[in-house]
Write a structure and sequence with these properties.
Distance between the termini: 39 Å
Number of strands: 5
Helix content: 10-25%
CATH topology: Ubiquitin-like (UB roll)
CATH architecture: Roll
Oligomer: single chain
Number of helices: 3
Shape: globular
CATH superfamily: Beta-grasp domain
Largest sheet: 5 strands, mixed
Structural class: alpha+beta
Strand content: 25-35%
Number of domains: 1
Strand order of the largest sheet: 2-1-5-3-4
């Protein structure tokens, strides 16, 4: 199965672990599987139109990806969440 990894700050915000095994042949399908299990996560990753939020980056096996990026069974998806402040 594909593994989705969340940054610590985001996983703590939605009160889940940082690593999740999911099903899906694309980033969109893998995220949807994760969102079913962790409903509060969707609003932190996707905007109201279903697009990746501007302050969120998604990488598949170390390469920046989008929702349409294909996945293999051993892909690793990392969600990075920009942090700001001073």
């Amino acid at each position: 199965m594909t593994v989705v990894k969340l940054p610590r700050m985001l996983s703590e915000t939605v009160n889940v672990g940082q690593s999740h095994s999911v099903a899906g042949d694309s980033v969109a399908n893998a995220l949807e599987d994760l969102f079913v299990r962790v409903p509060g996560l969707r609003n932190h990753v996707l905007d109201d139109s279903g697009e990746i939020r501007p302050h969120v980056s998604i990488f598949v096996d170390g390469v920046q990806a989008d929702l349409g990026t294909d996945l293999s069974e051993d892909s690793e998806v990392r969600i990075l969440h920009a942090v700001s402040g001073g």
